[in-house]
Design a protein that fits this description.
CATH superfamily of the largest domain: S-adenosyl-l-methionine hydroxide adenosyltransferase, N-terminal
Oligomer: single chain
Strand content: 25-35%
Largest sheet: 8 strands, antiparallel
Distance between the termini: 52 Å
Number of helices: 5
Structural class: alpha+beta
Radius of gyration: 20 Å
Order of helices and strands: EHEHEEEHEHEEEEEEEEHE
CATH architecture of the largest domain: 3-Layer(aba) Sandwich
C-alpha cells in the first residue's frame, strides 16, 4: 500500500484539504494518506519549504509528498514532480521543494504535462491541487513511473528560494530566520552542529541571549537560544512568544557568538 503525505495552506475551515484527499482516493482508495499540515500561512512558500524539509526524513522509502502552497496557481509557473532516492515530491515549482533538495539527492524531475494523469483534461485554473497535483501523486504512489506523468526537466532548473546561508567569520556565525513555528520560536539558518560542544550565545541587534539545553532552562518570559529537535539553532521565550517579544520575522538577521569554554 502506497503512502501520500499532504502539506497545504488550505486551513481546516474549508473542505479544500478533504477534496484533495478525495481526488487521491478516486485514483486509488487503498492509498494511505497522512496530513503533515494544512495550516501553513496563506501563500507562505518559505514556511512550507521549512516544514516539508523538516518532515521529509521521517517518512518511509517510497512516500509521495504533495506540497501545495501555490500563489502562482493558473500562471506560467511549472507543476513538477521530483524523484529522490527515498521518495517523490509533487509541487508547484516555486521554491517549495528546495529545502528537501538541499539535503537529499534528486534522481530525476519532470514537468507535469501529461493530462492522462490529471483528474480532468482541462483543470481548474484556481485548483491545481485537486486536478493535477493530487491525482499525479496518487498515480506515482500506485507505481506509475515518473517519466510517464510528464516531460523530463533539468534538476538544476528547479526554483530555489533565496534563503541566506550561514557564514562563519572567526568566532561569529551569521545567519537569518528561516521559519517561525506555532509557538513563536524563531528558527535560524545556523545548524546545531556548528555550535555542538561549544559555549555560545545569540546576538540580535545589541542584545545577547545565552544558550540553553531546553525551553524551561530560563525564567518564565526569558529569551533564550537552543538547538531545536529539527537540528537548527532557534530563539525561544520560556512560556512566551519570541516572535512577538522580539518583533522579528522571516529573513531577520541573527548572529551566534562562540566563546572559549
Amino acid at each position: 500500500m502506497g503512502l501520500v503525505a499532504l502539506l497545504t495552506d488550505f486551513g481546516l475551515r474549508d473542505a479544500y484539504g478533504a477534496i484533495v484527499k478525495g481526488a487521491i482516493a478516486q485514483v486509488n482508495p487503498w492509498l494511505q494518506i497522512i496530513d503533515l499540515t494544512h495550516q501553513i500561512p496563506p501563500q507562505d512558500v518559505a514556511a512550507a519549504r521549512f516544514q516539508l524539509m523538516n518532515a521529509y526524513p521521517y517518512f518511509p522509502k517510497g512516500t509521495v509528498h504533495v506540497a501545495i502552497v501555490d500563489p502562482g496557481v493558473g500562471s506560467h509557473r511549472r507543476a513538477i514532480a521530483v524523484q529522490l532516492e527515498s521518495g517523490f515530491l509533487v509541487s508547484p515549482d516555486n521554491g517549495l521543494v528546495s529545502g528537501v533538495l538541499s539535503q537529499n539527492r534528486a534522481i530525476a524531475a519532470v514537468e507535469l504535462t501529461n493530462p492522462h494523469y490529471w483528474r480532468v483534461p482541462s483543470p481548474s485554473l484556481t485548483f491545481h491541487g485537486r486536478d493535477i497535483f493530487a491525482t499525479v501523486a496518487a498515480h506515482l504512489a500506485s507505481g506509475v513511473p515518473l517519466l510517464s506523468v510528464g516531460t523530463a526537466i533539468e534538476i538544476e532548473s528547479i526554483v530555489s528560494l533565496p534563503i541566506a546561508q550561514s557564514v562563519r567569520v572567526n568566532h561569529t556565525i551569521r545567519g537569518s530566520i528561516q521559519a517561525i513555528d506555532h509557538f513563536g520560536n524563531l528558527i535560524t539558518t545556523i545548524l546545531g552542529s556548528e555550535v555542538e560542544g561549544k559555549v555560545w550565545s545569540v546576538k540580535i541587534a545589541e542584545s545577547v541571549y545565552r544558550s540553553n539545553a531546553t525551553y524551561s532552562d530560563g525564567e518564565p518570559g526569558e529569551i533564550l537560544a537552543l538547538v531545536g529537535s529539527h537540528g537548527w539553532v532557534e530563539i525561544a521565550a520560556n512560556r512566551d512568544n519570541a516572535q512577538v517579544r522580539l518583533g522579528m520575522g522571516w529573513g531577520s538577521s541573527v548572529e551566534v557568538i562562540l566563546r572559549e569554554g
